[in-house]
Amino acid sequence: MSPSSREKHGYEFGGPIGASLISFGLPIGCYAFAFLCNDVSGAPPPSLLHPSTLSLDKLIAETGWPGFSGLCSVRAILGTLAYYAFSLVLNVVLPAREVEGVELQNDQGRHKYNFNAFSSAVFTLTIAAAGTALQGPKFPLWPFIHENYIGILTANILISYALATYVYVASFSVKANDPNKRQLAAGGVTGNIIYDWFIGRELNPRISIPLCGEVDIKAWMELRPGMLGWILLNLAFIMGQYGTYGYITDSILIVTFTQAFYVLDALWNEPAILTTMDITTDGFGFMLAFGDLVWVPFIYSIQGRYLSIHPVKLGTARSVFIMAVYFAGYYIFRASNSEKNRFRTNPNDPSVSHLKYIETKRGTRLLISGWWGTARHINYFGDWLMSWAYCLPTWMAGYAIRSSILTGEKVVSQGPNNEMAGAAIPITYFYMLYFAILLVHRENRDSANCARKYGKSWDEYCRIVKWKIVPGIY
Q: Which member of 77, 243, 273, 385 has the lowest number of beta carbons within 10 Å of its beta carbon?
């Protein structure tokens, strides 16, 4: 790609420096969350509330730091690889629906995809349910996750680095007018190694695996190991709470149900990912690999991890309020996405044929009525509302773990004077804040891409649809 083309597309995420910081900073952040929410001293570790007496030795003791040798174990790596292999087998043996992707650039046709993520998830969860019905919290899957949580986190981090490196190297075999319809991503061929490795050079990298056939790496990673792993981690946390306390709270059930519903809904609507920016625009590099395999399952499940150690009983009123927020967000999210997907795949569908639109010089249609006439990314608003339901069940987050003077047993509370209440809000409510920033940044990226593609048509669209995400506010 020529320098002028690179300048036209531009760097994102702060360019090479930003890509470097993200690539090597985010894994540290994931470890930080894993140790700040722990079953050794509390969340956050009590010494963090008293900076004047804080020492490294005290922090190491309070977080349960296992030493560098404890960060990685052969057992955790083999277990994680077995999980990936099991998912690949299900991808092959279970019935799948064949779907065509969007039209590729330069009239190279369309990729074909075989989707069965939902049935794979149901099959896996059925096995877990049957095992739990027979053995309860001692079903081997749940102790394995608890005992190897840090090791599983490390294994997925290593896989994301290896995967990003593989697809980066493989991308140099892409040819002009490639007979296998391989293409490079417009934003991933800047010539800067670290940036291209991070953002992804190849648009839709594929690999042929013996006995498994051809796998579209990006589409498979988008909804397979990480998303289902998110549910499995939450279920392990429920089993952990039950095994420790002998009961399951409404708060952890709400977190697990809302997040599982979100994931299973995404898997059920798997073909809808083919019209998202992740698939149509972004290359597959470390950004998506780490996001899919590490950030989503381990950061998004932090509320379940918190509640497994410190049970919170919400009661009927608070539970109803949280669920109302969730389903309001879900309705906006799913209705708007379904409208867009139906219009893109069949604009003559009676449910969308009445919608008004602008037709660009490229022949693309931009909706200016219905959900998409209220805001350019109204689906993001629904998505963000749902995130509230993931965080609110932790309520005034913060707990301490002390040893009972009389029995020596561990006592979990918010402290004798309730001093820990609210201290862990930056941890358990982090997702809401991060997700808001992510969606605003994503909207800006998408808007910039659309401005490059549609020119004056995009300016006209923005004039008609004034709001970006939240109607009347932003």
A: 243
pLDDT at 362 over 80: no
C-beta atoms surrounding 152 within 10 Å:
23
Q: How far apart are CA 344 and CA 339, in angstroms?
A: 9
Q: Which two tokens stand for residue 337?
A: 């996405």
Dump pLDDT digits (tens) for 364-377: 888 889 999 999 99
What is the enclosing helix (H) or strand (E) of 413? strand 410-413
What does the alpha-carbon distance between residue 136 and residue 240 come to, in Å, rounded to a whole number?
A: 10
Alpha-carbon distances, residue 451 vs 107, 200, 378, 444 (angstroms)? 21, 21, 18, 10
CA distances from 185 to 20, 76, 168 (A): 19, 34, 12
Strands 365-367 and 399-403: unpaired
Chain-centroid distance of CA 90 in Å reads 21
What percentage of the chain exceeds 70 in pLDDT? 97
* φ, ψ at 365 (rounded to 5°): -110, 130
User: Is the separation of the CB atoms in 420 and 398 below 8 Å?
Assistant: yes
Confidence of residue 451 (pLDDT cuts 50, 70, 90): confident
Compute the 3-state secondary structure of the chain and give helix, strand, coil in percent, each to the nearest 5. 65, 5, 30
Alpha-carbon gap, residue 161 to 290, rounded angstroms: 8
Say how many C-beta atoms besides its own lie within 10 A of residue 235's C-beta. 22
Q: Determine contact, residues 382/330, Cβ cutoff 8 Å.
A: yes
Rounded CA separation 204/434 (Å): 27
Residues 299/33, Cβ–Cβ less than 8 Å: yes
Q: Are 184 and 202 in contact, with CB atoms under 8 Å apart? A: yes
Compute the distance between CA of residue 272 and CA of residue 115 in angstroms, rounded to an integer.
Answer: 11
Query: Which two three-digit tokens encode residue 416?
Result: 């004798």
Assess contact for 302 and 388: CB atoms under 8 A: no
Q: Residue 202 phi/psi, 5° resolution? A: -90, 140
CA max distance for the chain: 78
Element (H, E) at 402: strand 399-403
> Is the pLDDT score of 404 beyond 60?
yes
- Residues in the chain, total: 474
Is the pTM for the entire model greater than 0.85? yes
The partner residues of 414 in beta bridges, in order of sequence, read: none
Contact yes or no for 225/293 (Cβ under 8 A): yes
